[in-house]
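User: Quick sanity check before I run a bigger batch. Here is a single chain. Can you write out its predicted 3D structure?
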Amino acid sequence: MELIDIIALSFAGRLTSAEVRELACAHTTLTSALEAIGRHPMDLGEQAERQLERCTELGISIIAFNDLRYPVRLTSIDNFPALLYVKGALPPEYESSVGVVGTRSCTIHYGKPVTEMFVEEWTRRGCTIVSGLANGIDMIAHETCLRHVGRTIAVIASGIDKITPIPANDLSDRIAANNGCVITEHACGIKAQPPYFPARNRIISGLSDAIVVIESKMKGGALITADFAFRQGKALYAVPGPINSTRSEGCNALIRSGQAQCLTTADDIANDVNLSHSQEPLTNSCSIPGLDDGEPHLVDELASCWQCTISEALSRLMSLEMEGKVKQLPGQRYVGR
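Assistant: Done. Predicted structure follows.
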């Protein structure tokens, strides 16, 4: 089934993502899919066309579950979205990812500096940071990743054109403009509703190799994400906090129950997430043309220097990286060792 038909099918109403995917796989046209469930096409095709035009206007890609660009990690979770609306660049599948979540009302003296400390280290070591663009721990994680020139993914519970409040909308633009992306399963024009937030959390967990909870009360979105991670078989970590702080009750309970592993250093996640060595000072000792200036370079720059295709450049870079002669930095940049 074509993308435009899948978009139209998603507007049919009261169909789960799994049902949309099943119908799209079983039928070649929208009409036959709707006939199979006793629905009338009505103006679904027109709605889909308008949605496609709106997304094109805003620079948003619509990626269906049968698209090669669809994140492989998501396909292993229950009820994965039939459609993803993406603004920005999806990360390469081989790049490690850490989901960082926590309370919206984090503490300035503990939650904030702890989040900054861990995210800075994971960013420097090549990880993509995944979070939910909410106030508190989420926004601190996104901001810290951007500050250290890393890649971050914001998963939201509304259409990309309906992000609120204004600071979150501004941050989403910066994320998309700096090698990261904003992802949602909701079409443009859809405002966030209370049920959308828990559902959004399954995507945060699904895109992550490990989930880290930093400050959480006994109830809240972070623990919902933790539950999804546990059910999805993802590595789950929690940062312990003061026993007299309500904002650490959730984390301490996760650790006490054995559901989450205790995290006190950035290296604690190394068994579940591939962490490269910390970025070292650059030198001019590399003798590889194009990489002998000690500066990071994009693949297309190197392909031009080497007078080869981007595919050939990537293959050469992979070999050089395995030999320890080249280091990959966030943003698909490469530097000679």
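The CA atoms of residues 235 and 271 lie 9 Å apart.

User: Great, the batch can go ahead then.
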